[in-house]
TrEMBL record:
The protein's Enzyme Commission number: 1.1.1.83
SUPFAM superfamilies: Isocitrate/Isopropylmalate dehydrogenase-like
Stated name of the protein: D-malate dehydrogenase (decarboxylating)
Cofactor(s) named in the record: Mn(2+); Mg(2+)
Isopropylmalate dehydrogenase-like domain residues: 4-343
Major enzyme class: oxidoreductase
Classification of source organism: Bacteria, Bacillati, Actinomycetota, Actinomycetes, Micrococcales
Organism: Mycetocola tolaasinivorans
Pfam annotation, one family: Iso_dh
UniProt keyword list: Manganese, Metal-binding, NAD, Oxidoreductase
Database matches in PROSITE patterns: IDH_IMDH
């Protein structure tokens, strides 16, 4: 089966972890007889500087012909983040109805936990990815005057919340059967009670599942104190974003965390990217952890219908970490290149 994949390495460490992940995926593809055809697109902040746009005018049309999109990260210190995010990432997520952002977090072998208690963590964040707090509704008024004001409306729809809840429920039926919903219905008095109602209504269709609604502030603390008690967590766009960095860091480093932006019906390509950003503080040093990007590649293989190849790749980076090769964010000294070389040698060893 031949797959053409759109590659947007983007900015900063995106350009370092992307080639690392592609070399692992090429190795896997060879062993599993997959044909992965990479279409490298130089879209990102340099493209913005040259053309005033992050994506070309027909960029989404170009992407729509691919089997999947593989993204590094976008964002540079000298361009406002709203340009990079709303110029590229958010239009892709919305235009292609990638309404689920799936972010697994689990303890990996050889990765020291930041917690004293080393009980294993194995949870999945299901983040609503198309609406909620990330909304264009609002505006600025009286710019530059003392009465200057900004207003930002969150937008929650029955359609949007119920499909996120349904995805989480279906996922939970294949795992422990426990779903936690992140809410703030004590303080946010319109949208969050609405979220709670629709999540509860949807989950009621799954009598075998248990649902716990937890306020986001307490949930954040609990995720640090006893993350092993969580399994599937469903959250709005903003809450899910924050919880995924938090949970990723608790499990060892956000450099490990992968994500899939899914169009579950497969009408449009899905997009795979690490949870982290372009990390300008370490960009250009060759020390970024490539595992988040590699693991995102494994999620892509799953979506492309190659679960055995995906499992092989996951086993390989786990074996590489277990062998003691670690990048600096994990307390080690390995460079991006050395970490990648170890993953490739484990891919071969496990073939
Ligand atoms: P960040 O995730 O880029 O970095 C946060 C911290 O984690 C930094 O100290 C960084 O060095 C470290 N880190 C991140 N990834 C790492 C890796 N693979 N290996 C080792 N250490 C790693 O978040 P930050 O600093 O808030 O954002 C930087 C830029 O990235 C901004 O322009 C932001 O808008 C953008 N961004 C883009 C995203 C995307 O393209 N999907 C997601 C998040 C942020
Ligand atoms: Mg984020």
């Amino acid at each position: 089966m031949k797959h053409t994949i759109a590659v947007i390495a983007g900015d900063g460490i995106g350009t370092e972890v992307m080639p690392a992940a592609i070399s692992c995926l090429d190795e896997i593809a060879q062993i599993h007889d997959l044909s992965l055809d990479w279409n490298h697109l130089d879209w990102g902040s340099d493209h913005f500087r040259a053309t005033g746009r992050m994506l070309p005018v027909d960029g989404l049309e170009t992407l729509s012909t691919h089997s999947a999109i593989f993204l590094g990260a976008v964002g540079v210190p000298d361009i406002p983040d709203v340009e990079t995010l709303w110029g590229l990432l958010i239009p892709i997520r919305r235009e292609f109805e990638q309404y689920i952002n799936l972010r697994p977090v689990r303890t990996l072998p050889g990765v020291p936990s930041v917690l004293r208690d080393e009980r294993p963590i194995d949870l999945v964040l299901v983040r609503e990815n198309n609406e909620g707090e990330y909304s264009e509704v609002g505006g600025r008024a009286y710019r530059g005057l003392p009465q200057e004001a900004a207003m930002q409306q969150a937008l929650f729809t029955r359609h949007g919340v119920s499909r996120a809840a349904r995805f989480a429920a279906e996922l939970a039926t294949t795992r422990s059967g426990r779903v936690t919903s992140a809410t703030k219905s004590n303080g946010i008095i319109h949208s969050m009670p609405f979220w709670d109602e629709i999540v509860a209504e949807t989950l009621a269709e799954y009598p075998g599942l248990t649902l716990r609604s937890e306020l986001i502030d307490a949930l954040s603390a609990s995720l640090v104190l006893h993350p092993w008690d969580y399994d599937v967590i469903v959250a709005s766009n903003l809450f899910g974003d924050i919880l995924s960095d938090l949970a990723g860091a608790v499990a060892g480093s956000i450099g490990l965390s992968p994500s899939a932006n899914l169009n579950p019906e497969g009408r449009h390509p899905s997009m795979f990217e690490p949870v982290h950003g372009s990390a300008p503080d370490i960009a250009g040093k060759g020390i970024a952890n490539p595992i988040g990007q590699i693991w995102s590649g494994a999620m892509m293989l799953n979506q492309l219908g190659a679960p055995r190849a995906a499992a092989h790749l996951e086993a390989a980076f786990e074996a590489a970490l277990a062998a003691g090769v670690r990048t600096r964010d994990l307390g080690g000294t390995a460079t991006t290149e050395q970490m990648t070389a170890e993953v490739i040698s484990q891919i071969r060893a496990l073939a």
